[in-house]
Amino acid sequence: MPFLIDCPNCGRRSPYEFKFGGECKRAPDPGADVKAWCDYLYLYENMSGVQDEWWYHTMGCRSWLKIRRNTVTHEIIEE
Amino acid sequence: MAGRLPGCATQVLDRARPVRIYFQGRQVDAFEGDSVASALLASGIDTFSRSFKYHRRRAPSCLSGQCSRCTMSVDGRMHVKTCQTSVREGMSVEPHGSVEFDPKSLADTFSWALPTGFYYKYFYKPQWFWKRVKEVFRAMPGNMATVRPLAGKSRIDAVNLSPEMLVVGGGLAGIEAAITAAQAGVRVVLAEADGWLGGFDAFQGEAGHRRAQDSIRRLREHGNVRVLTSTWVSAIYPDGLAICVQSCGGEGPEGVLERVFHVRAGTTVIATGATSVPPLFENNDRPGIILPEAAQRLVHLWGIRPGTRILLAGGDDYLARVGLELIDKGIGLAGLADYRESGPDEALRARLSEHGVRIWSGYKVTGSHGRTRVEGATLAALGGSDVQTVACDTIVASSGRYPRHKLLGQAGARMAYDSGLNFYLPEDVPRAYHAAGRLLGLEDPEAIMAQGRVAAVRALEGLGIDVGTMGQEARQALERPSPLRAVSAQPLSTEAGKKAKTFVCYCHDVTEKNVEQAVEEGFSDIETCKRYTTATQGACQGGMCEANFTHVLARKRPELGSRTLPTTRPPVASISLGAMAAGHHDNPQLSPLHHVQLEHGGRPMRLGSWIRMNHFGDELAESLAVHQAAGICDVSMLGKFRVFGPDAKKLLNRVMTREVGNLAGNKILYSSSCNEEGILLDDGVVLKMGEDDYFVTTLAGRAPVTEEWFARWCREEDWQVHVVNLTETRAGMNVAGPKSREILSKLTDADLSNEAFPFLTWARVKMAGVDVIAMRMGFVGELSYELLCPSSQAGFLWKRILEAGKPLGLVPFGIECLNICRLEKGHAIPGLDTDGFTNLFESSFGWMLNRTKTETVGKPMLELFSDRPLKEQLIAFSMDGKSPVLDGCLVVKGPRQLGRVTSIRYSPLLDKTIGLALVEPDEDWREGGKVRLWLGEGREVEAAFAKPPFYDPSGGRMKA
Ligand code: FES
Ligand SMILES: [Zn+2]
Prior knowledge:
A: mainly beta, Folate-binding fold, 1 helix, globular, B: alpha+beta, FAD/NAD(P)-binding domain, 6-stranded antiparallel beta barrel, elongated, binds zinc ion
């Protein structure tokens, strides 16, 4: 993968050490209707551009990281 | 061709050190420094391999690892490029198949029966026919070897390097780039495919040799350059990982065959050079037809005569210069055919004529003749109708020049065709990559060196490294005029309708006619044409054929206007599976009870990330012992977690399907968990250890996933909850069977009676002096205690329990027995009896969904499913006696497949084979229904649908 991830615990690492956790989006309320849940589960922005996403450092510190990445250029945008 | 030229400085041979290798058992004398190919060529061997489709004779044509025509088995390793392999004493070399007499070469005569894309056109009907003959066809291709395990000890190593700069190519440009970076004080890795440095100049006679040696000497002054020779950079991935494979020829006591360097450099200079394009004419694949670089390598590096009567052919002054070098070494020339009307440069022409070399200007070679090797060539005047035949034993030919651009392409650069130069130049080279040297069409050594320095300076500047005055000096040197070398393109006349073959792709025997035919059939785009004809997809990965392939395509479809190259993908050259696997170390987890179980006869097996004991000799006897007396089983691989903090309950209620809030005292809560789609993930138990302090177990081997899953559900909350993974610090053992209470009572003062310690409760007890959490569970259907203790004391406790239990019939048991017993109870295991599509209701765990709790992960979707028909379901079945059916067997009904058997075992207690199956709903899944299991080849067995448990339905035994 053409970029490296800056893990606050482990430093700059290859994305192969991580598990991709998908776009950052909040789950609907548990009581929300089925449509809201289906949208959440099955509809993705599939962004061509900058998006916030989750990565889990499986082969490292085992924490979830939120990363802002340009999905076209793979540039990681520091906040 | 046999015999060697006198020694000289340019040669890489050490004539004082003879080496013997064995070709088909016959001794071949070589010298230290020879490659296997050079040794065989020097001894007069002409045919190295037979071609893929037509079984034509093939021999080395590049001697630089690009054409793949020299591959043989070396010391049992197949498909080794012999030109890239150094000789070693006693080496045994075998061609793939019989190359001298090959009856399959009949295919050459019947080539009309193998049109372009014949496997798409023929290989599907009639079906019965292809089913029968497919094995015959599979055995047809030439140059194929059988995989055999290596006889000797050998290994492939992996090394990780992270220099600031990687330089690919050890020619003048690469060396200069490396020196420049070294002077700036950074660490450099320089990878060179040949066994020596110098690149193109290493085989340019005395002058080139001197230039190369001078550069090498200056390079050696720097300690911060790591030079890797005999190393192919086979791939560059976009994250900057370069895979460099060094061939080590079985060095050292461990016999290292290859060393794989995983190089992650800050910046990369690619100076891979350029190479001649093979010529297009009839029978252009005959042994004896070689590239000019190969002729130079033979003469200058190994002192071998390429032939005794050599015809040079092409449209480039380079060939005239090579001709003069050959004359210089006393090698006879048959002449020079130059397809340019004007012929070679005036001065070169004069010198050639001085030596009486015949020059045909405006002539093109149109075909070669000969039996096992070239014996002559046909020349035709391009402008007129004159045709001549020339006797020769070797044709040194080229039809242009081509950059070795593959790595640049992998890095993301595009190659654009420059029709003036007849050369491809890189465009849009990504930031961290820089091209240098002959790869850019440069010719003048001074310019090449200057360009290498500039590339390094740019690369260093890209890294933010101060290069001082070096930058300016390098740029000034480059400004001196040094034109790129133009090479005229070979004029192509249409060959359609001719009988003889003109090869575009040598690896897959794709001819010019095949390509034309493909275009006529509509495959005119280079990507589709390449796939349809399979040109450029062979072992050379396009290295030998891409240029001609695009050339032929461009002539056939001039309206396309431009020439694009097919996409380049890793690897550049064939790479061994061993090299790919190198560096991956398998580290299975061992239970703290691993060794003590081995002492007791445990038979280990790999299960997921753990090694567990399959059985201790006899799983059937073990299962009977569990029912009649007692057994002990290692369950240390269960995931074990402490979840605590003020918000612990919130987390557990979210991930567990059952309500945790009501858990009180020493009750055990058995629960499952689902993902957001309601798919069953896991099952385990929850114990409440104190206020806001819980202990949770999960399925064997699932601990890492559970950890991620728990963290995932708190990551967006500001909850105060800690999840501590205790899996490795706590061992687990399950003591089960009617005698288990009696046995354990011997080791503890605690009251283990059913009244004091009933089913589904837990207690802290001291057992043989060890602090233990004991849980009364019923997985195997008998009275049982699951004991968790500190890992360091587990072995001790295990031994004490075995001692105490032996007189009462206690035996250790493994997972086979565990499987038998849990199937007798009809217990399913999530992930084994269910899969990634099985929701909670379909899995027989539906009863565990708390309907009132709303926060449960997956609940909203489960609500949606709850009033819909199931898509699949888990059923149980049984058969009398032993059955040959295995896990994974299909469940069928007539022609339909309803699902599969997920677990099946023979129970000696019931004398029945019992199992679970994940199947579509069907009306047969009722009392008296039949479950049909498919054994293959039309055979089926019938089992009876059953409602579990098969054993002790009231559960009286486990609650006793
Ligand atoms: S001669 Fe060995 S690959 Fe070309
Ligand atoms: Zn980390």
